[in-house]
Design a protein that fits this description.
By secondary structure, the protein is an alpha/beta fold. The chain folds into 2 domains: 2-137, Resolvase, N-terminal catalytic domain (Rossmann fold); 145-222, no CATH class. It has 8 helices and 6 strands. α4 links the parallel β3 (65-68) and β4 (94-97). The longest helix has 34 residues, at 108-141.
Length: 222
């Protein structure tokens, strides 16, 4: 049976345009309509623990063909890709790519091509991570918001060009200073949370304080 494996991570989907529908179209054009489709959405190619991938490998029977749009859909880690291939081979199945990439044959030259493609996929992932880290670091140094929840003690403001930056929330900054003072007095995180609640202070979402939230806020303010 022809079985299609699809995978997208949020970042890759946005950057490559190789979304789920495009992957199915590429596989269908190259090999025909798949008899089964296994899809992992929003999961990095560096992770082995993927629900659909595990289900696919468990389902393999002798003679099955696993089709991917590109080999980097299997993984963006060289050793992980090799492991997936070995698991498929043990089950009597084989893996093919709509982009070719050395999957047409099993001769030495094709094997070398597959290893080169897999190594480049891992290299490309490392470059993407490096660029992302550098971009986020530059944004933080400029005081721009880089995603996630707005930290307690700050609000988000938009500048010209719609760039979002963090600005101090004076009322919340006072609560942080109070928590710091209580900590220097020797109070535990639980006691600080109780004191803040007693004085009517609330978290960013309007909830009562817990020791975990106090710990997080004080750690960021340190």
């Amino acid at each position: 049976m022809l079985k299609a494996y699809l995978r997208v991570s949020t970042q890759e989907q946005a950057e490559s345009g190789l979304g789920l529908e495009a992957q199915v179209a590429a596989i269908t054009k190259a090999f025909g309509e798949p008899g089964a489709v296994y899809s992992d959405e929003g999961i990095s190619g560096s992770k082995a623990d993927r629900p659909a991938l595990g289900e696919l490998l468990d389902s393999l029977q002798p003679g099955d063909v696993v089709a991917v749009a590109k080999r980097d859909r299997l993984a963006r880690d060289l050793f992980l890709t090799l492991w997936v291939e070995k698991e498929a081979k043990k089950a009597g199945a084989r893996i093919v790519s709509a982009a070719g990439e050395g999957t047409e044959n099993d001769d030495p030259a094709s094997g070398l091509m597959r290893h080169m493609v897999d190594a480049f996929a891992e290299y490309e992932r490392a470059v993407i991570r490096q660029r992302t880290a550098a971009a986020l670091g530059a944004k933080r140094r400029r005081g721009e918001k880089t995603g996630g929840d707005v930290p307690f003690g700050y609000d988000v403001a938009a500048t010209e060009g719609a760039v979002k930056i963090l600005i101090p929330n004076l009322a919340e900054q006072k609560v942080i200073r109070l928590a710091q003072e209580l900590k220097t007095q020797g109070l535990s995180f639980n006691a600080i949370a109780a004191e803040l609640n007693e004085r009517g202070h609330r978290t960013k979402r309007g909830a009562e304080w817990t020791h975990k939230q106090v710990t997080r806020v004080l750690a960021k303010a340190a």
